[in-house]
Amino acid sequence: MNNFQCIAAIAQAGLDGSVEMAFAAPCAHHLALQQVYDGNDVHLKIFVFEYVTGGGLYRETLPASLVREGDLMLQSLLLDLSGIPGLATIVTRDARLPAPVLANQLVEVSPTADFEQCWQQCLDAADAVWLIAPETGGVLEKFGVEVIAAGKRLLGSTPDAVKVTASKFSTSARLAEHDVAVVPSYMPHDAPITAGVWVAKPDDGAGCEDTCRFDSHSALSAWLGRAGRMQTHVVQPWLPGEPASLSMLCRDGQAWLLSCNRQLIELNQGGFSYHGSELNGMAHHWSALESLAQRVAAAFPGLAGYVGVDLVVDDGAITVLEINPRLTTSYAGLSRAMGCNPARLVLDLFYNDVFELPPLMSRNVVKISLNA
């Protein structure tokens, strides 16, 4: 059984029992969410929009790998939200895909549909919007702007913060200004290429898409000279070490660390592929990573809600690679890793002035594999 099937099975079982207990016992944390919703009556409608599976590519071929990751995040989030009383979810869905089990209201997007009309219909019906979309091409920023313009609560980072963190070049510059250790990023025509190993990747890319490592300047230059990459990519020095990531919550320049993860990334013939993560696989660096999380949040006060940070850890030296101002694949294992409901924490963060993490939060090691 793969991860998506596993989550779907747990969600289906949860229709007749306790969804939350299927992952882990809830932690002792008395949230003040009754200010917003209580009992069994719906007091809060959340539009959960996952771009790939929710119609963003409704007239394009659906890449299987992106559908898999998108569904993993979507189903995990819907499962967590379904365990919160007084809340209903609205979801758009590409008509070519099976319907998610736990959506309260579903709007199908077919190839003949008007996507903008479907999006607006869901936006109008919602009180708040949770976006899961790529930063590439300004997609996440665009939808965030529309949510705010509609007067709805955006359960995520501000469009301005998304715009800056979407660019690896801009992110590197901002973090360097705040004395945070970050990999230098150069535009190809300005890169001080010297002997050594270099990595080239899209400036606003997500994941490992079109990212390659080069052992020679000539091979790097030749690759960048094709497909217009001189205008779209950045160049970074290769950093040895173990790939890692942070899952954290942010608000107003503050951060709350949820898990320290080991990333499962494979390098094959110069190309990178992402295979999942091991949540809390880097928990032995918790203290240092918690301090780093605070400094990253201070550098980007517009980061809000769930945020992922990609890193390299080499013999205790920690260097930031990029910031993901949205849900990441690691979210799928977060409830088990923490022993409580991360979606509830996000809502507590947005709807209450005073926020704190549960005192009994676990640091369980949970592996999320995209190969199963």
- Provide the succession of SSEs: HEHHEEHEHEHHEEHHEEEEHEEHHE
Categorize the overall geometry. Answer: globular
Strand order of the largest sheet: 13-12-9-10-11-14
Q: DSSP strand (E) fraction?
A: 25-35%
Assign the CATH architecture of the largest domain.
Answer: 3-Layer(aba) Sandwich
| Low-pLDDT stretches | 1-39
User: In total, how many domains does the architecture comprise?
Assistant: 3
Could you describe the largest sheet, including whether it forms a barrel?
6 strands, antiparallel
Strands, total number? 14
Count of helical stretches: 12
Mean pLDDT score: 87
Domain ATP-grasp: 289-351
Protein name: Carbamoyl phosphate synthase-like protein
GO molecular function, one term: ATP binding
Pfam families: ATP-grasp_3 (PF02655), preATP-grasp_3 (PF18301)
Summarize the structure.
The protein has 372 residues and is α/β, with parallel strands linked by helices.
Describe the structure.
This protein is of the alpha/beta class and 372 residues long. It has 3 domains: 154 residues, Rossmann fold (3-Layer(aba) Sandwich); 146 residues, D-amino Acid Aminotransferase, Chain A, domain 1 (2-Layer Sandwich), CATH 3.30.470.20; 50 residues, no CATH class. The chain has 12 helices and 14 strands. The chain is globular and about 65 Å long. The chain starts with a helix and ends with a strand. InterPro entries: ATP-grasp (IPR011761), ATP-grasp_PylC-type (IPR003806), MfnD (IPR024710), MfnD_preATP-grasp (IPR040803). It comes from mine drainage metagenome. This is Carbamoyl phosphate synthase-like protein.
